[in-house]
Amino acid sequence: MNNERPKILIVDDDRRYLESLELLLSAHYEVITDSDSLNTLGIAMSQHPYLILLDLNMENIDGYQVIRELKQNLETADIPVIVVTGSHETEDETHCLRSGAVDYITKPYNPEIVKARVHAHVELKRQKELLKTLSYQDGLTGIANRRYFDDTLIREHRRCRRAGLPLSTLMIDIDFFKRYNDIYGHLTGDDCLKLVARTMLAQLNRSGDLLARYGGEEFVCAKQIAEKLRSAVLDQQIPHEAGIDGLITISIGAVACLPTEGIDTRKLLMLADSCLYRAKVSGRNRVEAAACSQASSDQAVGNV
Ligand SMILES: [Mg+2]
Q1: Could you give the domains of the chain?
Q2: Torsion sign, CA atoms 272, 273, 274, 275
Q3: 70 C-alpha vs ligand 1 centroid, how far in Å?
Q4: What's the 303 CA to ligand 1 centre distance in angstroms?
Q5: 75 in active site
Q6: What is the pLDDT of residues 111-162, one digit of tens each?
Q7: Catalytic residue among 217, 218, 227, 241
């Protein structure tokens, strides 16, 4: 987002306002306009605008309803909404701000005030996004950190449980990495970590979150992905004189489950960890996988 112009969505059923706002803002922002509020949620979800300027009185769905829908949807809840409306009623303004709008501008508007307020909210949003990225990123490797993983796992667990979808978790560890650091030094160790992380990331079709989460597929798929990661790291042929066959390798514990009340994220992680342990004790450079169900979850998990 550094050099790109931030994207702004303007929704108004009066085309004159759409055009004048677009004219006003298009010098500094990439502007998308929408005259039918039926589309707003869909556009917001697919385009991820930085900010939405929203009319209140509209033909199909009124502005209040649009704000509600945006705020209830996890993908759009964080997009700031500025209401731009002909209503000068204090009640409307209060209601909008209480519903989650960040600002309220009345028509006819003063162009300079609109520009200044849009600028202020875009900057706030930009800083918020930057902080979020930094707080969710592992400083060394650039992939998602533990906090992001924990948050994602809880969210996905909830989503999969609601939708009846299976969820898989892989616990991955570099074999004999302490020895690697002892032999080659910590700087080389850091380089190795970065390369292994990059290698695994390149195997995943979607960005970062998949390193933390595998969902919606059968167990076999989790095992296949784990095997793919294992062989991709092996293929890098990173020398490690105290490693398996003189190379850097990884061991993986993979667990798939159908999330239920009896299987929480803590249990899922414990099971993945015990699979990883099995992979370690049975020779490393391998995947140990298991499936669990509520019935079997109190016991050790079964092999697949
Ligand atoms: Mg209107």
Answers
A1: 7-135 (3.40.50.2300), 146-303 (3.30.70.270)
A2: positive
A3: 18
A4: 61
A5: no
A6: 999 999 999 999 999 999 888 888 888 888 887 888 888 888 888 888 888 8
A7: 217
